[in-house]
Amino acid sequence: MCSSGRLDVPTWVDTVKTGTYKELAPYDADWYYIRAAAIARHIYLRKNVGVGALQKLFGGSVNRGQRPSHHVDASGSVQRKALQSLEKIGVLEKDERGGRKISQQGRRDLDRIATSLINVEDDE
């Protein structure tokens, strides 16, 4: 997905935090592509995943000083925009029961990528 250049990236990816519990934006310049690939893989393995489930998945622990840490959900906007980007290139589609699911073309693309990765590992 990343090498083809088809995935449109929002303009704010270099300055945004991925959650309220974070102190800084991600250091990696390609973090949006990595997040989109992780979302595509998560939805490939499970059905009917929505923004709320992805917020919980990518959330983390908030530093509360002397008090115990607690889980905090990640930013919903980042997950929503990644889902919309994946929908735009045809990997995902909306499900009638809510959430998103892998499209037929998306399943074919992800299977092809996984097969090529297995073949590369076998050659080494």
UniProtKB/TrEMBL annotation:
Coiled-coil region(s): none
One example GO MF annotation: structural constituent of ribosome
Pfam families: Ribosomal_S19e
PROSITE patterns, per database record: RIBOSOMAL_S19E
Gene Ontology CC: cytosolic small ribosomal subunit
Tagged with keyword Hydrolase: no
Keywords: Ribonucleoprotein, Ribosomal protein
Biological-process GO terms, alphabetical: ribosomal small subunit assembly; translation
Gene3D superfamilies the record matches: Winged helix-like DNA-binding domain superfamily/Winged helix DNA-binding domain
Family: Belongs to the eukaryotic ribosomal protein eS19 family.
Protein name as catalogued: 40S ribosomal protein S19
Source organism (scientific name): Saitoella complicata (strain BCRC 22490 / CBS 7301 / JCM 7358 / NBRC 10748 / NRRL Y-17804)
